[in-house]
Amino acid sequence: MGHIVTTIIPIFSLVILGTIARSKGFLPPEFLGPANRLVYYLAIPAMIFRAIANASLTRQFNPTVIWLTLVALVVLFFICWAGSRLLMLPPSVQGAFIQCSFHGNLGYIGLAVAFYHLGADGLARASIIAAFVMIIQNFLAVAVLQSHRQSDAAGNRLSAVAGKIAANPVIVSATVGLLFSIAGITLPLVIDRSLQILSGLALPMALLIIGGSLSLQLMQSRLAAILGACLLKLLILPALGVALFRIAGQNLEDYLPAVILLASPTATIAYVMAREMGADSEFAVAAISATTLFSAVTFSFWLSLG
Asked: Model pTM greater than 0.85?
């Protein structure tokens, strides 16, 4: 339990610090956008590439864990779709609800928890799994948002969004890192240390940005649907994963990084995608805020497995 506390409290203290810093004017809205791009396009990709490129695929690549993780994600996707119909939400809210209930914040939260709880080995395992999960969850997000949009007033942006997914810096960095690891290429020391320095910026800056982006006011709107999204994302999805891993007889060491990723709160990019594709972006902000806050508690439970 002590290790869990020392993992969760430092991570979410930075999120809270980001919220306080925004209220005091240290993280103004005009700063958050450029800072987010810096982390998203440079620091996080550098961290992921370095972790995977230096990883041993023979020891840290587990195809069974990867495909079971994807199965859990797809099953939850259809559960969310059915749940949105039962709640009788408007179409634009249905799309946002479904996306926010399965689209996890892997790069900013999931990998941070994996690193601080499991160390460099856990980060490498989680990064490899995250590369596959990000591809699937981004395509599922596009599919559900496109199917629930009511008009093309903003233009049909499906191809543009699909192009952004293909060029997603996290997916690209993970893919290139896999190629380096498969080929057995050793990073030159000067490049490795440069990436290490840049990687050090990734997690603390990302957590501060998340804190600066939270909205407690929007959480009060559509409370039932938001709580439903929290239940699906933070409890049901990782529970599905744990059940599948145990049925398949996988070792905890191999699947705990995947559980951490499945238990991650809603991705901040869910807001961007909802806004771009005509869904309820305010609901997305509320769901991101709620799942991020509640994940401080639910992560403690899932980490107790190990």
From this structure: no
